[in-house]
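Q: I have 54 residues here and want to know how they pack in 3D. Can you give me a structure?
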Amino acid sequence: MELKSKLKWALAGYALLGVAAWFTLDGRFRWIVLVILAAFAVKSWVATKKEQLG
């Protein structure tokens, strides 16, 4: 499977989890989960860019 395709699936999964968290959680816990998902998304993107370059 191509690297960009894997990244798209990973980002779609993070987005789906983020939407689910938004509608099912509240307060501080919602924001903690969203920040963690955003960190995973950035980490996935950086890893993909690193793999493409080297």
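Q: Anything worth noting?
A: The mean pLDDT is 94. The radius of gyration is 13 Å.
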